[in-house]
Amino acid sequence: MLTQSAVPLPSLDEQLSTMSIKRIEVFVIPAFEAGSSGFRVRLRITSNLGYGWSELFISSSEKPLDWSSWSSLLLRFIGIYRHTFFTNGYYDRASNDERIYRLFFNAAERVGIQPPYPNSREYQTEESILLEQAISYVSLF
Question: 22-140, which class in CATH?
Fold first, then answer.
């Protein structure tokens, strides 16, 4: 016997026009280039459409007072969004540091462009290396 659901499922077009962000990770790694006294900040988004990465170099003199302060700004992005949200951009006028937003939106634009991990072993290896090198790590889900 067939029954109808009380809440209709979203159409395929609606599913493809939204991104469900499930996890945001920030890795802060000392820059190892010769003569560099800064940091590589790598941000990874995990979503229903795949992964997105972005990277930012910050000199030692420009680093935030507390790396984890960025997590409160990023936490609001866990959820379901229409793709237009990412193309229009978002900037919290109360925040004096727009770098974290640029980092996030660059990663969001790359979701689906970057090939998915072919297997979980490659994902775990990459994550293991980043965690080993990181001086700070934030995982939001």
Answer: alpha beta
